[in-house]
Write a structure and sequence with these properties.
The chain is mostly helical. The protein has one domain. It is built from 4 helices and no strands.
Length: about 100
């Protein structure tokens, strides 16, 4: 059995960074992004990211898509953090 960190060690920042890496990793240079974990399994996710992220010129092709991406990251971060804080995810992830 692997050692688990107590939920209190999972700060919102740590959870938020993990969610962001899974959904939308930060750019390596203007307009260049590493693959997200989600785009490897959801065929249309990269298409969505390409409309929501700043391109090489620094412009965002679709402001509504960018706002939706920010909302997704924020809400999923809250969901995961709250799941750890209540212990609900501990039982789901390690029954």
């Amino acid at each position: 059995m692997r050692a688990r960190r107590p939920w209190s060690a999972r700060t919102r920042l740590i959870v938020g960074n993990a969610v962001a890496l899974a959904l939308n990793p930060p750019s390596q240079s203007p307009g260049v992004y590493p693959a997200s974990a989600l785009e490897r399994i959801v065929p249309w996710w990269l298409t969505f990211l390409n409309t929501a992220r700043p391109n090489a010129q620094g412009t965002i092709p679709n402001a509504e898509a960018a706002a939706l991406l920010q909302t997704l990251v924020r809400r999923i971060t809250t969901y995961i953090y709250d799941g750890y804080a209540t212990g609900a995810l501990d039982t789901v992830l390690d029954p």
